[in-house]
């Protein structure tokens, strides 16, 4: 994969435009297909040298053409190869027809394939552009292959996975390995498609990187390349206030743990100072658990307003364990001129009337980040969540535009989106992060980045990445407390 395209995500529509631009610029489209098919055959031989037979399943489009090229290459290399086609091969057109014509093997109907022990399937039925449910015959073949646990190598994307949304169109193969071309597609990263891809190989088939870059938007894989310029190492001589003062607002005496997790995570993630703002009833329990994190009594809006006169307190986390209600709404509206992470109860408090929050965010001078999981997203953005035509990326982008906030749409495929449309998809989070308190830790890391002066989008994206790395370091038995201990330094 070219370094210039390493983190780029290309939608199926963009990939079509890229292919058309390559052809218009004089690039030989059949040469591209041949390069793709050869890459697939090389992967098959490298990964499954013990295969007794390679079974290539070809569809009616260019994905099938890649399959015919791969079948020819495998046969030329002396492998036992069988080819099966969906539909009438005589209707294949363009480069795929040329690849079929050059294939020396008999092509049998897809329905005739019976999986045998020792088979390795090369799935070239449909690629990333699939937008409808698979035909019944393709679904029946997938069921037989899955039942017999035949290993599958997918061409571009496992057939049945929607390349734009990651959703399953009726059924899909679960591949051991997927070979895609030039750049990742959203369906490789979004659930449930991501778990159907196996290991992912991105192969450069020869389209100039310039043509790819000119026709892609602002969608990227979440890596330090997306935010690293804002995460330079701190000057060792920097005063603690230059590293930011983060405040986390605590709930009542019976619900203080979540806020303490956020506060401790914020300190570990690099904020110069962290204060837990606590109601009087919770002061004692919070004080008994805090050492480096400071404590301040904030009973209501008057105390908060007085504290806000100190401009050194420049970032806030509101929501973890805070409680749903009027005070959460009042506090959030007061904090919209500062950097604010609105999490959990903070977001749910606006479920019935979000207008004031969104309008305040639009005209405020602060930086607002909201961190909903799927349920919270559906409560705050019900009309967006209900739109089945949208991918998770598109939903996060729509919510960011509507709310004038950076949205961290959490999950195993967390998406971070800005009101401008810029978005990243995260891919480094282990399943062990699905544990109590994990989201509170993430909110604290975002808050620490905001306190240190990072822009809201970069603060959120970097926090999601560090959160995922911490989960990997903490291992399968992690708890929220051990997760904090494993937060890595900013790259």
UniProtKB/TrEMBL annotation:
It comes from the Bacteria. Its EC number is 4.2.1.136, 5.1.99.6. The keyword Ubl conjugation does not apply. AMP binds at residues 410-414, 439. The keyword Hydrolase does not apply. InterPro entries: Carbohydrate_kinase_pred_CS, CARKD, Nnr, Ribokinase-like, YjeF_N_dom, YjeF_N_dom_sf. One of its GO terms (biological process) is metabolite repair. Binds 1 potassium ion per subunit. PROSITE patterns: YJEF_C_2 (PS01050), YJEF_C_3 (PS51383), YJEF_N (PS51385). Homotetramer. Catalyzes the dehydration of the S-form of NAD(P)HX at the expense of ADP, which is converted to AMP. Together with NAD(P)HX epimerase, which catalyzes the epimerization of the S- and R-forms, the enzyme allows the repair of both epimers of NAD(P)HX, a damaged form of NAD(P)H that is a result of enzymatic or heat-dependent hydration. In the C-terminal section; belongs to the NnrD/CARKD family. This is Bifunctional NAD(P)H-hydrate repair enzyme. It comes from Sinorhizobium mexicanum. The gene is nnrE.
